[in-house]
C-alpha cells in the first residue's frame, strides 16, 4: 500500500486501515491465554508490588498483568506482530468492572483498559516505524463479561437476572473510554454469546463517541455455542447480524467455541448476508479430553487459506489454543489474496428474532 510518511495520528491509522482492507485479507493475532499460561506465573507475579497486600487471590486474573507484568504483555504483542499479524488485540478481554468485581478490582477496570491499549499502541508503533509500508493496528478487546442479560441463572425463576442492561451499559462505557484514551484504533466487541449484552456494549460505545466527539471503527464478533449454529440467545448467525447491523461495524464475524471445520458454514452464511467485512478467528479445533487444542498451524492455515480463496473473509486470526506459529502460517496462507467483496443487500424487512 502507499503509506503516508507518518502514522502519528489516529486519523492516519484509520485511513490506512480502510485502504488495507480494500487491498488484502488482514490478519488478527491469536490466543493470549495460552501464551500467558506458558509463563507458569505465580501469585506474586499477579500481585506485583502494587497489589502485594490485596485481600483476595489474584492468580488467574490475566488482565491484571497489564499493571503488574507489562513486560510479558509487551512480549506477547511482539510475538504476534513478528508472526505476521496486522492487528494486535489488547489483553483486556476481562477488563470490565463487572468481570473484575470477582477479584474486588472493579475500580481498576478503566485503568486496565487504558494501560492495555497503551502497551499495544507502543508495540504496534514500534513495528510500524520499522516498516511504514505495513502499518500495524491496535484493536481494543471488549469481552462479553461473565454475566448475561438475557438468561436467568435460576431454572425456577426465569425472570431473574444477575445484571441489567444499564449495568452493562456503564461497564462497557468505562472500558471503551479507557481503550480510546490508551490509543486503540479499533474497538473489538468479541466472543458475544448474548446478543443483549452486545447491544448494551454498542449503545455504550455510541454514547462514548458522542461524548468525545469522534468515532472509531468497531469490529463485532459473535460466538456460536454449538453445532446448531446458534448463540446462547438462540439466534442464528443471520439473525445475529440483523441485530447488529444498525451499528454499522467495520466487520462482523465469529470467534471461539468452534474449530475451523465446524465454523466454516457459519462464516459462509455471514458472508452471504452481511454488507460489511467478515472476520473469523476460530479455535485450534475442539478441546481434547485434557482441555487442550490439537489443530496444527498447517491445519489452520489450510482451512483459513481456503476461506480466503473462496472469498468469504476479510480478516482472519485465531482464538483459543492458537499461538504465534498458527498466526505465522495463516498469514502466509492468505498473503497476496484479494479480500472478500461485500454483496449488495436489497433493503427489505429482516427480523432478528
Structure in a nutshell:
This protein is α/β, with parallel strands linked by helices and 353 residues long.
Describe this entry's structure for a reader:
- This protein is of the alpha/beta class.
- It has one domain (10-334): Alpha-Beta Barrel (TIM Barrel), CATH 3.20.20.330.
- 43% of the residues lie in helices and 10% in strands.
- It has 13 helices and eight strands.
- The chain has helices at 10-23, 33-38, 43-47, 65-68, 70-83, 97-100, 109-130, 165-182, 195-212, 237-244, 260-273, 297-309, 324-334, and strands at residues 26-27, 87-89, 137-142, 186-192, 218-222, 251-255, 277-281, 315-316.
- The protein is globular.
Main features:
10% strand, 13 helices, 8-stranded parallel beta sheet, 353 residues, globular, TIM Barrel, 8 strands, alpha/beta, 43% helix
SSE layout and pairings?
Elements: H1 10-23, E1 26-27, H2 33-38, H3 43-47, H4 65-68, H5 70-83, E2 87-89, H6 97-100, H7 109-130, E3 137-142, H8 165-182, E4 186-192, H9 195-212, E5 218-222, H10 237-244, E6 251-255, H11 260-273, E7 277-281, H12 297-309, E8 315-316, H13 324-334
Strand tally: 8
Distance between the termini: 41 Å
H/E series: HEHHHHEHHEHEHEHEHEHEH
What portion of residues belong to β-strands?
Answer: 5-15%
- CATH topological fold name: TIM Barrel
